[in-house]
Amino acid sequence: MIHDARTDLPEVLEADVAIAGGGPAGIVLALELAERGRRVLLIEGGGRQSPNGGTSIYDNTTSGRPYPLTGSRLRWLGGTSNHWGGWVRPFDPRDFTDAPSGDLPGWPIDADALNAGYRRAAAWCEVGSADYDVGRIGLERRARLLDLANTGFEHRVFRFSPPTRFGSRYAESLDRSELIDCRVNLNLVELQQSEDAVSSARAVTFEGRSCTLRARHFVIAMGGVENARFLLDQARVPGNQAGLVGGGFMDHFGFTPGLMLADAGLQYERGRIAGDDLMTVMAPSAGTEGPNSCVLLTSTAPDDILPPAYWTNRTSGNAAGGHYRISMINAPTARRESRITLGDERDRLGLRRPHLHWHLPPTEFEPVIALFERWMDAIGARNRARIKWTRKTPPDENDNVGVGYHHMGTTRMSADPADGVVDPDGRVWDRDNLYVAGSSVYPAAGFANPTLTICALAVRMAAHLDQRLEA
Ligand SMILES: Cc1cc2nc3c(=O)[nH]c(=O)nc-3n(C[C@H](O)[C@H](O)[C@H](O)COP(=O)(O)OP(=O)(O)OC[C@H]3O[C@@H](n4cnc5c(N)ncnc54)[C@H](O)[C@@H]3O)c2cc1C
Fold this sequence. Notes:
CATH topology of the largest domain: FAD/NAD(P)-binding domain
Order of helices and strands: EEHEEEHHHHEHEEEEHEEEHEEEHEEH
Bound molecules: flavin-adenine dinucleotide
Oligomer: single chain
Number of domains: 2
Helix content: 10-25%
């Protein structure tokens, strides 16, 4: 059932598992646990609908490379899925195994650990298919694409969620479930902790009502910034044995290095392949060096920099050429100094406001530029294509760059407590019954958007918690 805590709030709420945050992570976890017969308390700080008045609760400060944090998180049921774009794809196997480019380690689990989760995640995100295998899809037979044979690059695909607005799409399931007690307008503000566990938690409404949450397990699923902010605000910060709560913030950053003149009608963009809602990109083959970033092509108007004359002058033919803008989505490096900290100012709930220092130095663009150069040479040698640089140097430290609004890495998963905040099950290293769900647990991120993996990890966490509750 969904209740509004402003009018309906007992002094104590109890469940097997208490989850704070009703975005994709929290909603999928709650419904998966209920399907396994577990009693769930799901508290959501916002209401059922958009608050219409902005969300000053999320006000923040930033430093380092400019980052548009304000407005990139939403505070009502469904969370930031209320305006996500719906691009989905699982991480590649190499995202779990590649040696990281920074000095923090990568994933402690491999891609197989998420196979079952990804299949269910596709259903939760209402994606038509969970198949991303270019060979099985028959992509290169069905679409007019560049020839990538022996180039060291491969085609990969993104699929699309409608996009699912998790709050409205699953409100009825939450409301109908007798095992789920979902309270909206109720904010988690404090954990009561012993040395190694959470004994209870305190949640409040904006109007000042308060209640105690009791559960065998507690999960924070409040988004990639709030998860770290909330932990940092506790009198004793859980999982901070390595000083990494808040550290390692990452987002997929953009780079737009060039223009291409090639055959007209290349089918890279979304919606170009009959019967399948796909977008095709190019990425380095497994086992090759450099970041697992991807190259996107978008049709564009002829440009002075690359006039059609370039094409018709070629000896190989006079067919009309097509113009494409080339952009890249890039795998970020996790760095300690890229981090969420707390300021002195407090919000209406008394929580200290977050400060993001986004450390994305110009040197991070060097491997990206080298990768593009490799792609450019390989494509030019194998295809009728002329490629022109439009930007060959890294943006300065304070320049704006494109971001994905993907808040990752601030409560990183690790094989060893010395390298992270949560263990491979998502459990905070030094608290037996406290878990973190969402992209804040990602220690590495390839180029795939985060939400499908958030859902896959939530499915996996539900199976894990179900087993622990059995004990
Ligand atoms: C413009 C934009 C476009 C995007 N496009 C894509 C895309 O195409 N593909 C993709 O994969 N991802 C995309 N994303 C990212 C995607 O929205 C997030 O990955 C996803 O919503 C994260 O899910 P979550 O449940 O972890 O967190 P959120 O969706 O942020 O949900 C967290 C929830 O916790 C609640 N909460 C916060 N604090 C508290 C508290 N103290 N107590 C109780 N509840 C609390 C919030 O109200 C919210 O409902 C996009 C994001 C933006 C901003």
